[in-house]
Amino acid sequence: MKNSEVGEENLLNDERFSCAIKLFNSQEWYASHDLFEEIWHETNGLERVTIQGILQIAVAQVHLERGNFMGAKILFGEGLGRLKRSGLPDLGLDIKKLCMIVESRLGKLHQDLNPTFTSLPVISKKVGR
Asked: Using CA atoms, how far apart are residues 108 and 64, in angstroms rounded to an integer?
């Protein structure tokens, strides 16, 4: 798709978007990041910010798996900052739930605790859509 074509409606119909969500929810963080990044490069507007926030959370998980807690803190924080931005399109996803999970994991990291026993980030469809 060309940059001018990719808006929220097109994203929701893009099978790569669904595949990226499935990879994310299967804890295939790196592959999920790569696919979201591909979509991100083709996206304009506020949808681009939503995609970037999600892919940053995927990369934060990669950092956690590799023991890079500082990298995870930074990327969780950046992803949250983007996803909590006012007026951001949710792309049919429960962004609030994702943010709550990430905030919990980030809180553990800020306490110098390993967030292993907190919920893993998941992307759910928004109820009512």
From this structure: 12
Looking at 42-94, list the stretches that DSSP marks H as alpha helix, in order from N- to C-terminal side.
45-65, 69-83
The burial of 127, by beta-carbon neighbours within 10 Å (0-12 exposed, 13-18 middle, 19 or more buried), is given as: exposed
Confidence (pTM) = 0.90
Q: Give the domains, in start order, of the chain with CATH numbers.
A: 3-117 (1.10.3450.10)
Q: For residue 55, which of 83, 86, 90 has the smallest C-alpha distance?
A: 83
CA distance 48 to 118: 28
Could you tell me the two tokens for 84?
A: 């909590």
Q: 82-95 pLDDT, tens per residue?
A: 999 999 999 999 99
